[in-house]
TrEMBL record:
Keywords (A to Z) from UniProt: Cell membrane, Membrane, Protein transport, Transmembrane, Transmembrane helix, Transport
Record's subcellular location: Cell membrane
Organism taxonomic ancestry: Bacteria, Pseudomonadati, Pseudomonadota, Gammaproteobacteria, Oceanospirillales
Name of the featured protein: Biopolymer transporter ExbD
Recorded topology in the membrane: Single-pass membrane protein; Single-pass type II membrane protein
Chain segments annotated as coiled-coil in the UniProt record: none
Pfam families: ExbD
Membrane spanning stretches: 12-31
Cross-referenced InterPro entries: ExbD
Family: Belongs to the ExbD/TolR family.
Organism: Amphritea pacifica
Length: 139
């Protein structure tokens, strides 16, 4: 007896759902990704080219060393804490907030140390802050 074979159905993959899923994933990642434009700026700090101003006989000068240590009017502080600096400034200035406040920092001093001095001086009410600089070597 001869059996008839069933005709084979053509096997195919429907690509429409696959394409839909890929497009949905693409849209999801495009919407959820944050695009950042990072740039590395190279800056050169300015040098002071003016003449030295006459300092008054009475002023408040804070020196900041390379290690971030403070000296207020020639007196070294025990530590670099803002409270210690604040107490030393109050001891030197008293109630006079009109004194010229001079900040002298080494070129390699951490920026945070200078900002801390400026912050403490601002909180105490000093408005006349100045930062000392030196003339360029070629002049």
């Amino acid at each position: 007896m001869k059996f008839r074979r069933k005709p084979k159905e053509e096997v195919s993959v429907n690509l429409t759902p696959l394409i839909d899923v890929v497009f949905l994933l693409l849209i999801f990642f495009m919407v959820s990704t944050t695009f950042t434009n990072e740039s590395h700026l190279q800056i050169s700090l300015p040098e002071a080219d003016g003449e030295a101003s006459e300092t008054q006989a009475e002023s408040l000068e804070v020196l900041i060393g390379v290690d971030g240590g403070y000296t207020v009017n020639g007196q070294s502080l025990l530590n670099s804490q803002p409270d210690t600096l604040r107490r030393a400034i109050i001891d030197q200035a008293g109630d006079n907030r009109k004194l010229p406040f001079i900040i002298s920092a080494d070129a390699k001093t951490p920026h945070q140390s200078v900002v801390t001095v400026m912050d403490v001086a601002g909180k105490l009410g000093f408005a006349a802050l100045s930062i000392t600089t030196q003339q360029p070597a070629g002049q």
